[in-house]
Structure formats: structure tokens, C-alpha cells
Amino acid sequence: MAVQPAIVELCQTVAGDLGEVVPAIVDRIRREVPGYQAVDRTEHEHAVTLQYEGLLTGLITRRPPSAEESERARELGRRRARQGLAIESIIGAYHVGYREMWNTLLSRVGPEDQAMRSDLASVVGTVWMWIEQASSAAADAYGETVRAEDALAHRFLGTLTAGGPVTAEHTRMAEAFGFDPTGAFQAVCSPADAWRDEDTTALRDQVRSHRGTLMCAVRDDLLIAVLQSIPASAFVEAMRSHGSRAAVGVGLAREGLAGASTSIVDALEVLPAGGTGEVATFERDWLIATVRPRADRLTALLDPCRRTARAHPDIAETVRAFAEHGFSLTSTGRALHIHPNTVRYRLERWQELTGRDARTWAGLSIGMVALDLPMTHTSR
After folding, report:
1. Angle at 122 between CA 119 and CA 128, to 5 degrees
2. C-alpha–C-alpha distance, residues 371 and 190, integer Å
3. Are strands 279-281 and 248-250 parallel, antiparallel or unpaired?
4. How far apart are CA 236 and CA 203, in angstroms?
5. φ and ψ at 189, to 5 degrees?
6. Per DSSP, what are the bridge partners of residue 184?
7. Which of 111, 121, 153, 334 is the most exposed place for a label (fewest CB within 10 A)?
8. Phi, psi dihedral angles at 281 (to 5 degrees)
9. Is residue 254 classed as helix, strand or coil in its secondary structure?
10. What are the distances in angstroms from CA 49 to CA 46, 95, 340, 350?
């Protein structure tokens, strides 16, 4: 059935006004679908303009999206996947955008023009056909891209965790994820059994709302994230927002792809230092992480301190507090609610029992390793 001339004229008029219509609708999409804040505004308006040009032409001719328009929707789905948007955001944006275009058409028809409104109602089916076919094409291409990226992520992680010299292939894979191969990288890891696939996807989508680049995937028994220009603290905060209380290891920020590999090693080495709900960072926990692989060789050195800590936990607590409060008797006493003289007595008693003076670097470092290592030394 041919479209009424009045509908043709209406669609042509709105098509001519897209320069004014599109920015307002893009505003609405970006308000209702927050993930779109990560999309460049100019690029977003251009994509929406092309969608509406196709839709309005389709309403005039009562046709579905052409092969070219469907491929454009697929390319948009691929691009949004690479930009890290959630599939729910993409589908939501389609529905908001087409809803607002429909409202724009309705607003151009006076409430008293019932005949025109009736004619407009006759093309509702065509609008829904465009929504369904365009969003389905975008969703299909999105899924294909995500699956391909997951496979690439496993390859990329494999090359980073294997170590060795940086090759041209490493650089190409990094660039495929949007990384600057010469920039700074930081790694975060957590036990994989704490993360379901849907949780990992949601986490990845949430963190990608930050300006920066992220690659996050499960490899073997670990969830590993590689970040660039995204604070590790933001990633950890996102992990906690999903209710996870798993241990987390955070590597140092390091330069280049070789640095990315080393940061992953950092994160893996400190991970055992984090108990349930704890975050261990290489910046803070590097000493224990470095000593842990040699714990057996250090038994004779550390055991006197360990035995004393088990027999006199109050003295061990004082040694730890002394290290954490600027080596000040007054500050340590205030923190433990004891007199500074009691702090002095306990430090002297620690020296008598262990042979280590906690008021010297050599004695304190051995004591702190002894206190920390029994709680963190586990085999993986």
C-alpha cells in the first residue's frame, strides 16, 4: 500500500531538519544510556544521522533496511564492541533513538489532525521492522566481535605471561586492543573461580566507561586485567561493586609491552599476600612477594621471630605497630593504648627473645618478614 502524500512530505521535512533534530535526540540517548558517554559525540551524531536518513527513506517507500544499511548497522555493532559498550546499552540506544524519532514525527502533527495521525499510525509496523532488523544486525556483529576479541585476548595474555623479547606480533595485538605499545601498563589479577563469565563481562563493560584502554580475560585459574590510562583503583572499586570479596593483586605501572609483562608478574607475585577481601599491591608488598619463593631457605633466620610471635602475640603486635607508626614510642603507644614505656619494654623483650633489635633496619626487616610470611606463604 502506498504511503500517503502527507506522510511523505512529513518525512522529507524531518529529514531536512536532522541537523537540529539529531543533537537533541543524542542528548536523550546519552542521558538514558550512560555507557554512551564513552562514545565520541561527533561520531555518535553522525551514526544517528545515517540511521534516521535510512529510516525516513524506508518510511516513505515502506521498505526494510537495505543490504548496505544492514551492513552499516553491523559495522556500528562491531565499533561499539571495540569501544567497550555493553550489548544492553547498544540495544537500549536503538530503542531510545527510534522512540524519539517517532515522537518527533508525532510532534509535527497537530492534535486536531486526526486523519494525519491515522496515516502516521499506518507506518508503525515499518518503524518496528527497522528497529528489529537494525538492532539485530548490530547485536549479531557485536557478538562476533566480542568472541573474536576474547580469543585475541587469550593470545595476547599468553604472549605477555610467557615473557621474552617484544616482537612485532606483540605490538600488533596491543594496537588491536587500542593500547599504545610504548605507554604505561598496569596489571590486576584475582582468582578466576570468584568470577562468572557474565560477571567478567559486566566488570569489563563498567571499567571501560573510564577514559583509557582495558583488556580483561580469564586465563588458566586467574582473571587478569591489563590497564592503560585507567587507575588500578578504579578497576578494584568496580570489582568490589560487583560484590566480589576475592583477593586482588596489583602490579606496578610499567612502561612498554615488556613493562606490561612485568606488571603481570608483579600482580601474580603479590596475590597470595591478599587474604579474602584484601588488595595486595606490589608497591607496598614487594618485600614479602620477593621473599616468599625463598621462604624455605629463610626458615632458620625467621623461626626465632615466628616462635616469639606465637608465644607473645602482644609483643609481636607492638613490633608491627612500631614499624607502622614512624618508629615512635609515643605514636605506637597511642595506637595500642599503652604507655610509651611499655612499648620500650616490649621492644627490648623482643630483642631478648629473638636476638633482633626492632629499632634497627636489619632487625626490624627480619621481624616484619617473619610476622607477614607465615600468613601469606601458600603454594599455588
Report:
1. 135
2. 24
3. parallel
4. 10
5. -140, 160
6. 255
7. 111
8. -115, 145
9. strand
10. 5, 15, 73, 75
Could you say which DSSP state residue 186 is in?
E
Q: Among candidates 155, 148, 185, 186, which has minimal Cα distance to 170?
A: 155
State how far the Cα of 279 lies from the Cα of 235, in Å rounded to an integer: 12
Question: In sequence order, which ranges of 209-255 are alpha helices (DSSP H)?
Answer: 232-241
Contact 231, 145 (CB under 8 A): no
Q: Return the half-sphere exposure (C-beta side, CA atoms, 13 A cut-off) of residue 183.
A: 14
Dist. CA 5–CA 316, nearest whole Å: 89
Q: With 0-12 CB in 10 A as exposed, 13-18 as middle and 19+ as buried, what is 38?
A: middle
Is the full-model pTM beyond 0.70?
Answer: no
Q: Provide CB contacts within 8 A for 48, sequence distance 6+.
A: 22, 25, 26, 29, 97
Residues with Cβ within 8 Å of 38's Cβ and at least 6 positions away in sequence, in order, are: 83, 84, 85, 208, 209, 211
3-state helix, strand, coil in the chain (%, to 5): 70, 10, 20
Grid coordinates of 81: 564492541
Tens of pLDDT, residue by residue, the chain (380 residues): 556 888 899 999 999 999 999 999 999 999 999 778 878 899 999 999 999 999 999 999 989 999 999 999 999 998 888 777 778 889 999 999 999 999 999 888 877 778 888 888 888 899 999 999 999 999 999 888 877 777 778 888 888 888 788 888 889 889 888 899 999 999 999 988 877 766 677 777 677 666 788 888 888 788 899 999 999 998 888 888 876 778 899 999 999 999 999 999 999 999 876 566 689 999 988 888 888 888 888 888 999 999 999 999 999 999 999 999 999 999 999 999 999 999 999 999 999 999 999 999 999 999 999 988 754 443 33
Residue 379 has which C-alpha cell? 603454594
Contact 32, 89 (CB under 8 A): no
Residues in the chain: 380
- Give yes or no for a contact between 248 and 279, defined as CB atoms under 8 angstroms apart: yes
State which amino acid sits at residue 245. R
Specify whether the CB–CB gap between 278 and 270 falls below 8 A: no
